[in-house]
Each structure stands twice: as structure tokens, then as C-alpha cells.
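Human: I'm a chemist; would you kindly supply sequence and C-alpha cells for a protein?

Assistant:
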Amino acid sequence: MTRPAAATRMERALAALAVDPGGLKGIVLRARMSPVRHAFETALKHMPDTPRRIHPGISDLQLFGGLNIAASLAEGRPVRDKGLSETPGLLVLTMAERTGADLAARLSQILDADTGHALVLLDEGATAEEAPPLSLQDRLAFHIEPEDEALRTQALRLPARADLDTARKGLARIAVPEDAMGLLVALAARFGIDSLRAPLLALRTARALTALDREKSVGEAALMEAVELVYPSRATRFPAEAEDPAMDPPPDTPQPPDDATDEGSGKGAGELPDEILVQAIAALLPPDLLDRLKVARAAQARAASSGAGSKRRGNRRGRPLPSRPGRPSQQARIDPVATLRSAAPWQRLRRTPQNAHRPVIIYPSDIRLRRFEDRSDRLLIFTVDASGSSAVARLAEAKGAVELMLAQAYARRDHVALIAFRGDGAELLLSPTRSLVQAKRQLSSLPGGGGTPLAAGLVAASELAQHARGRGMSPTLVLLTDGRANIPLSGTPDRAEARQDAETIAAGLARQGVPGVLVDTANRPAESARSIAARLGADYLALPRADAHKISASVTAALEH
């Protein structure tokens, strides 16, 4: 029975990694628990280096080693633990899609040290947004996402241990054509691969495959197989989009004679036509490549701006929380008072002739760790509808609500901003501030009248929310409007288009995870405002003819329930 091409590629990738683990750095397998995942993990057990499993919650002490405070206190002498980074080997990271930026940086540091470590990422993400950090994936040579149903009945076969050892010994003697790297870089550019690691990893893959095949120099077949294994997962565009007539050689460029030969060992890589390699890589690209890239970039942008949160636990600053038992590390500091309080009742029972010289006898179970809760600043973004004949009264109510919120800002650590939209656009009238004096000065004169560009107001609120998150704040939207939009983003009056634009932008704000409240200021609450609130994922408050005190009290209750 003919073996599936996907199974062959997985076997060859694992075999190349077994030959040169320190050079190829590792492999990503994106597959949930299945026969394919089981076959892959079974094959890992037959690798020359015994795999060691780690998880996203691994500590720095386990990775890099260091002083074991608990054991040192128990034995009365310094006790040092060895870390995984001190012994080269194959690390298998389970649930890799949950890897945080801090762990990704530490693992990258281990890989970049070139001490012979290799990393296997077992990615169990169910959606495109759930994936290991791109910075970590870029360092690993191979990315496998099996979809072939025939793989369910296939076992992965690796070369015999003796063959792998022979290939390892002969790896340093493999000759490489001089033009191989130039060809690999040009191919990477055709597919929009801007990382220089890709051609370097492809070349090392070609050398490892050549050593496995017991050849003396890298040939055309090894180069083609290497680019098929390394490039498809890194491509950011289809090759047709990269073609540029300006890059073609001029027609009068002299061609080398047919009998020209390369000096050195082996044939030149340039003898392999570029289009053959391009077609080989393109055939392996997923048809939804562009859609995947959009999702990945959106997830990356959200990750970059997700530093804000209403609560963040740590061990450095913030409101103290009760200490808890645990194992000390660089991220978890000991609470000396709580630790001594825990050990004090047992001193008489623990005293022996051997430890009589020690003033205090502390066991690992006595250790207590400090905990703090750091609350990030919250930004209340008041987005006010300043259109129509009642704009003056509406803005006066908003002004009073903002001033009441500012009066409470010091105790609640809130900042306040004000956006007004009218006519054909929106304007930031009050930048984020806690200063009541500055707020009154900027709120002294608020213009009103004109159309209702609700979409423009939501766009302004979205941009301000993103900016606030970049500064470590937690934005919250307070939208005061009747929901009757009539000016779209194009600026031309069109009620249907304006409503559609507003709902689209509102859905985008909801995807950003910005909480909020919509205050319906219409005399008679209508379905339009409820619809916008639903798209925003915000609480809906119907407050016709509400004054500033009622708005402030209702918004505060809605945000804190």
C-alpha cells in the first residue's frame, strides 16, 4: 500500500530533527488528541534524545536551575537544583497554544544559546486565534498540521538507531553548493518570507536529509525536499503576488555557456529551475492562507494590546492578599512573617541534637508566599450624541455626569474622557484625565446640532480604547445616544447605511473586549438603541430625561454589578 505523502513528510521531518536537533531547533505539531497525535508522540519516544515533557506553567527554577530555598531551609545548607537548560535534550511542550510571552522568551533564550536543545510544540488550539507565539514558532524548522485521513491508520517509522548515528557523524562532512543559499533566499522572497531563519533552517534540513541518504553533497532532490518541509508554513502570500517584472533580467544579459561547470564539490543548486521549487511549495500551501494570516495578525494585535486588566495578581506591589503555601521562585517571593508564624508552633517538636544549633527550624511546608492584587487604572470613555435640537440639554447632562465621575476618580482610580459626535464626524473634547479643574475648563463650551454620525463616534471611541490599553489602562465605554444614526462614515446622509456602519463598528468594539453601557437618551426608548447595545455587548439603560446624578448612579451600578 502506498504511504500518504503527509506521512512521509512527517517521517522525514522527524528523521532530520533526529540527525541535527541543535541546528533545526524543533517542530510544531498542530493536532488535538487523535490517532495522528498518538503516532507522532510514539515516534518521539524512538528519537536518539529522550524527550522531556514540560507545560506552560513551568517555573524558571525548573528551566534554569538555582537555589532551592525550601530544601536549603530544611537541610540547613545551600541546595541547588539543576535546570533543564543545563542538559541538552528534546523538550516537549504540551498545550503550547497557552504559552505566554514570558515563557516564549525564556525558551527562545535556551534555543538561541545553541547548546543542543530542541523543542517540540504540541499545539492543541481549536481555532486560528489559539496558537503558540510566532516568535517561538519562527525558531523551529518544521510546522506540521496533518489533515490527511489516511494518516489515522499509519504508524510513523524512523530510520534505525544505527543509521541515525551514522548520519550524525557524517553531517559535518556534507558539502553545500555555493549558490544554494542564494536560491533559498530568493525563494523565501517569492513567498513573502522575511525571516532569515527560514533559508538557514532549509539549508540545515537539506544537509540533514543528505546525511540520512548517505550522500556526500547537497543535491537538487535534498533542496527541493527541504523547502517543501520548511517554507509552506511560513509563506505569507502566493507566489503570483510576488512576481515583479522589474526583477527580471534584461534581455541582453549574457547567459552562461552550457558546458560551464561549478568549481568545488557537487552540482550548483542553480541548475534546479526556480519554477519547479515554486510550484512544489505552492502545492503545499493551504487554500485559506490569506484568511489564516488575517486571523493570526488580528490575534497578534490583540495580544500586543492586552496588557491592561481590571485585576493583576503579582508579588511586587498592589493591595496585599493573604499569603498562601507554595514553592518560592523568581516569580513568587517568600513572606517571612507568615512563614515564621507557620513554623513557630512546631519548634519544640522539631528540635533534635543534630539541629540544636539552629535558631529556627523551617520545613518546606511552612513556606508562605506573598501575593498582591494590582488594579490597573480604568478609563471611562463618555461618547455623547451632540446632534439635534436637544443637543444642548444632552451635553449639559453629560458634562455633569463627567464632573461627578471625576469627583470619585481618585478613590476608584478612574480616568475620564469625553467624545462628542455631530454633523459628519466626532471630536475628542476631553483627553483622559483625573483633573477636575482641567475637565471643567474643557467642558465649559460644548457645540451641538447637525446630523448623527454614530459610526464616527464609535470609531473615535475604539481608537481611544486601543490607545488606553497600550498605556496599561482598562477602557470602558459609556455611550449616550438615542441610536438614530443618519450619517454614515462616508459623510453622505443615508439612514440605512449609517445604521449598518454603526452596527459594524459596534461589533468590532465588542470583539476588542471593551465593556460598556449604552444610555438611551431618547424621550421614548426605541429598538435602534437596543440593537446598538446588543452589538456592543453593552448594558442598556433607558433613561429619558435623565439628569447627571441619575446617569452617574446608573452607570456606576451597571459597571460594578
Notes: DSSP finds 23 helices and 16 strands in the chain. The first strand starts at residue 26 and ends at 30. The chain has a mean pLDDT of 78. The two ends are 64 Å apart (CA to CA).
